[in-house]
Amino acid sequence: MRKESQLLKGCLEGCVLKIIDIKGEIYGYDILKTLKENGFNNITEGTLYPLYTRLQKNGLLSAAIKQSNIGPARKYYSLTQKGYDELKQFNEDWLGLNKNVNSIMQGKIT
Q: pTM here?
């Protein structure tokens, strides 16, 4: 039986980095919203906030607390240079893996 969560786990970090790359400095909840708008319906805040912490700890994200007009201060995330480098490597790895898996799944094996 296929477990979507196992497949997702390996891709989520790269997707989060790419969303921040595209949108720039962004509030954590807005990343969740973007993921959901793009088909990641089973993702929760409880999945993402530990991921943000790990990415920060690994030097891939920086965070800044900013005041909000509609409530308490919010933490906004942006990529560090190390984050951009990691995103580039993820993209290269993903393209290669995607090509190989698609080839086999389409029956193009030798």
A: 0.88
